[in-house]
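note to self: dont lose this again. the chain is below, predicted strucutre after it. 307 aa total, dont forget to put it in the shared folder this time
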Amino acid sequence: MIQKLTDKIKKTGAPVVVGLDPMLDYIPGHITQKAYREYGETLEGAAEAVWQFNKEIVDNIYDLVPAVKPQIAMYEQFGIEGLKVFKKTLDYCREKGLLIIGDIKRGDIGSTSKAYAVGHLGKVQVGSKVHAGFDEDFATVNPYFGTDGVKPFIDVCKEEKKGIFILVKTSNPSSGEFQDRLADGRPLYEIVGEKVAEWGESYMGDSYSYVGAVVGATYPEMGKALRRIMPKAYILVPGYGAQGGKGADLVSFFNEDGLGAIVNSSRGIIAAYKQEKYAKYGEACFGEAARAAVEDMRDDITQALGR
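---
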């Protein structure tokens, strides 16, 4: 799967992943009003609005990018109805040829961690039958439990030829409360990065490991250090756009071959129509605004990489 990601990045020329993280206030009024007329102001109505919003976004961007990254919490907030739409969105993205990074940030130990891995990346035995649950291609993993929490994911990934992105240095402002703490005179995020490289050595693709890392665009100097520590790990880079990251900040996340990183933007794309730059599209053409935002992001990154 990591080679497939690399190939799709080369084909599209866009090391970009679109975060499908819908909030109700991102969704244009004509979509929510229609959903509420049909289902009422209920969890089912909210989920229907999210589905129609997602579908329009995907229809406008699927040929431009290699992957999408749905954040499961944005769906869980609507309960079972939201999770149904999460799965429906995953299936639709796969039909459109997109790779799927499930932003689930799971982590536990033993059978619990394995169950998370099976549910999102693997297959579960039900009597004499085997079924895939959510069936993403990649998932984000919290490493706080250490190898006990990560190894079950790697084991399932090996069975299914899928991958993970482990949280190393996240983009949020307070990440340093723990991640920047010194341990043996070094920042904790560097030690986690070394473990990612170690775990990745046991599960390599042609050029890159199936074990990747999450490193925020808002910390480019740390990204440069982590790129050296994890030369064979793909880096998933959140924090572009709405959180302040821009193309010029991202060069150090990539290897000299122009690969090795994929950059996420969520509300900067899916709610682009709310920005002054894309206001001309209006609510009615929010999907077209999202497409224009993807094209601008792609051009910003490729220009910064000198490609």
